[in-house]
Design a protein that fits this description.
The complex is a heterodimer of chains A (277) and B (422). Chain A has one domain. Chain A is globular and about 75 Å long. With 277 residues, chain A is mainly α. Chain A contains 13 helices and no strands. The longest helix of chain A has 27 residues. Chain B contains eight helices and 18 strands. In chain B, strand 13 and strand 14 form a beta hairpin. The chains are: A mainly alpha (277), B alpha/beta (422).
């Protein structure tokens, strides 16, 4: 009886980014179908349907406006605090629901994962699609808030796509890494909501970035790329100034590192998913 | 570039760690603690050892082996769900896998939505699924339930839909893993029929089942895995023959150790005058039964190919005195072709209460002619030999004369032909 294969036979998977991305592109239909499936399955069971997606940021906004503003007395200039808070809540909600839905997307699709081949990224990506849909629904409220406060977005809103790119890179990197690790360490799923809750207060959502002392701000931007992004949204949409490019640059570097390392961690762990499933 | 449907696997190894039951951070921490205290953790267990084979497009492979022999692991590696530890595997084209019933179905979605979902898992666009949608629904017989959520389907409907979707979306390689066991007989037949159709269209098929007659009927080639190693690879009849013999010799004749009120202490099967058993010659069976008290019993003796369903069955009411009784049975002309057979015995009261459970008690070989091979796609229920002579006339007299058949009259006591459907 042999007790193992000769080492030269060891299976090694070729790591070709191009091939991975091509395969992923070929599976775009699948991402859409899976995303649609999750949306449908969710809204078939929930009586309120899409209003759930709006409800979460809305409730936070009301809570922040009623309590946070009174207690902490956040300085927002001539911008209504509700708008200020909601503009921070939208990117935060996207991040948080991406991580919590996408983080569990592999675990909750194990029955598929274990029996059918497809590029495994489709599951977190489909969840991200669901989170984006929810956020789009929730941003309708932003329009209503602008109308209620008779406040209009500024022309510098053209910078938003840049901010969005940094935000999505960071969000996807974290989501991919979390989803892959949770397959191996299932009890981490209980940790996700706690960490996200802490993250909500570690991110300038209820307050502005100027609450952090100027000398520490660059560390803050590196550690939490969402901070310069949210600050950028407020500057461009509400105050009519350009983003703080140095802080945003740091955040973008950090987001790129997170995306690359999150994706390669995912690809490395991917080969063992079916073994532990 | 390989042609679509080609499968090439060489030196495949796959290992599992038996102690990796759960995957929790807590367990991982404990494992680290244990490792630091007393050496390495449990060794790896091999699920596949140096397995390799090649399939050309359109070939059909029947995969057999006991539970835990690595069949499902092999399938998972072939459909790229799992990665091997060592070795090389190449599969060209689209793979349709039916591993476990209704594996790809989502309970909250309707049958229609599930068909499209599975299609996109196989890499098909909406239009391609739509083109085959009616066929799928018709085959699965769920026409009036297509828009119902799958969680309200019966398990039969789920399985039919799962099979239909996998088999009608035209994969280049179709993997079918022991899924037909759940369906009713008519659906099983339709599935087997569909598998043959798919084969005829040039799809490569790998079929895993414990239902050996259907494997024999569907596949041209057999592969027998035992404890992760290839025991035998070749024409399906030869491989299944070897497999049957090995399985049955392992299931060693349990009933002799019976501890009920009756015990079979000896069982012997011989041909004429104690020689070897031969086709269409007499066969003698001797059974020695020990009883603690007198019993009015109905005694059954059967000849099987291994599984419980007999090819020949004999029954007789016997009064067994306390002590030892010799029971003899003589079959005048054994209607069995060459092969290995098993004698099964059982004893019951008149009210069908079990005294000796129906189980194999002896094994014997028959010497004689071989059976003619079956046409592709046809399963033979039981091997029965009848002497026959053909006569074929020439082209000027285009009639096939009826064969001078000798239906092997069996004059033995109460002979019945039982259908074997292992």
């Amino acid at each position: 009886m042999l007790d193992g294969p000769p080492p030269e036979l060891r299976f090694r998977r070729r790591f070709h980014l191009g091939a991975f991305l091509r395969e992923l592109w070929a599976a775009r239909e699948l991402v859409r179908t899976l995303g649609e499936r999750d949306l449908r399955a969710r809204y078939k069971q929930a009586a309120l349907g899409f209003s759930w997606a709006v409800l979460t940021p809305l409730v936070y906004m009301v809570v922040f406006t009623v309590f946070f503003q009174r207690v902490a007395d956040v300085e927002t200039g001539d911008v209504p605090y509700a708008l200020f808070a909601y503009l921070g809540l939208l990117p935060w909600t996207l991040f948080s629901s991406c991580v919590s839905l996408g983080g569990l997307s592999l675990v909750s699709n194990l029955s598929l994962l274990n029996k059918v081949y497809c590029p495994r990224e489709v599951f977190p990506l489909a969840s991200a699609g669901v989170a984006v849909t929810d956020t789009v629904a929730a941003s309708l409220v932003l329009g209503i808030l602008f109308a209620v406060h008779t406040y209009a977005p500024r022309a510098t809103v053209v910078w938003v796509p840049v901010l969005l790119a940094v935000q999505l890179a960071f969000t996807l990197g974290v989501t991919l890494a979390v989803s892959a690790v949770v397959v191996y360490l299932r009890d981490l799923r209980h940790l996700i909501p706690i960490i996200l809750q802490v993250g909500l207060f570690a991110t300038p959502v209820a307050y502005g970035i100027d609450a952090v002392p100027g000398s520490a701000r660059w560390v803050y931007a590196l550690a939490n790329p969402l901070a310069p992004v949210i600050d950028g949204y407020r500057r461009t949409v509400l105050y009519g100034t350009a983003p703080d490019w140095s802080l945003l640059g740091l955040g973008a570097c950090s987001a790129a590192v997170v995306l690359v390392s999150g994706y390669s961690l995912f690809k490395r762990l991917e080969t063992g998913f079916a073994d532990v499933a | 570039m390989l042609r679509d449907g080609t499968v090439s696997a060489a030196h495949l190894w796959k290992r599992f760690r038996p102690d990796r039951g759960r995957t929790l951070l807590r367990d991982e921490v404990q494992r680290l603690g244990r490792r630091s205290r007393r050496g390495p953790a449990q060794p790896w267990a091999w699920a596949l050892r140096d397995v390799g084979f090649e399939l050309a497009p359109g070939e059909s492979l029947g995969l057999v082996g006991a539970n835990g022999s690595g069949k499902s692991t092999l399938l998972k590696i072939l459909c790229r769900v799992m990665y091997p530890y060592a070795g090389r595997v190449e599969v060209a084209g689209r793979v349709g896998a039916l591993i476990e019933v209704a594996s790809g179905l989502h309970p909250d979605l309707s049958g229609r939505e599930n068909a499209y979902l599975y299609g996109s898992l196989l890499g098909l666009g909406r239009r391609e699924v739509a083109a085959r949608f009616d066929e799928i629904i018709a085959f699965a017989e769920v026409d009036d339930a297509v828009d119902r959520q799958v969680k309200f389907y019966s398990s039969g409907m789920k399985m039919r839909l799962g099979f239909a979707v996998a088999a009608f979306l035209e994969p280049d390689l179709l993997l079918v893993d022991e899924v037909l066991a759940v369906g009713d007989a008519s659906f099983q037949n339709r599935c087997l029929g569909r598998m043959r159709e798919v084969l005829a269209q040039g799809t490569t098929l790998i079929y895993v089942s414990h239902d050996l007659p259907t494997v024999e009927a569907t596949c041209a080639r057999g592969l027998w895995l035992e404890r992760g190693e290839v025991r035998s690879d070749g024409p399906v009849r030869e491989v299944l023959g070897e497999y049957r013999r090995a399985v049955e010799s392992e299931a060693e004749l349990i009933a002799r150790r019976g501890d009920g009120p009756l015990r079979v202490t000896r069982a012997a099967v011989t041909g004429d005058e104690g020689g070897v058993a031969r086709t269409l010659e007499p066969l003698d069976v001797v059974l020695v039964i020990e009883a603690e008290q007198g019993w009015n019993t109905r005694l059954y003796l059967g000849v099987t190919e291994g599984p419980a369903s007999p090819v020949l069955l004999f029954a007789r009411d016997v009064f067994l005195d306390a002590g030892t009784t010799d029971v003899g049975l003589r079959v005048d002309a054994l209607p069995l072709p060459r092969g290995r057979y098993f004698l099964w015995a059982g004893a019951f009261t008149r009210r069908d209460q079990e005294l000796v459970p129906w189980a194999p008690v002896a094994r014997f070989d028959v010497v004689g002619p071989d059976l003619a091979p079956t046409p592709r796609g046809v399963a033979r229920l039981a091997p029965v030999h009848a002497d026959a002579a053909w006569s074929v006339r020439g082209a000027d007299r285009p009639h096939l004369a009826p064969a001078a058949a000798d239906p092997a009259p069996t004059r033995a006591d109460r002979v019945e032909f039982g259908g074997s459907s292992a």
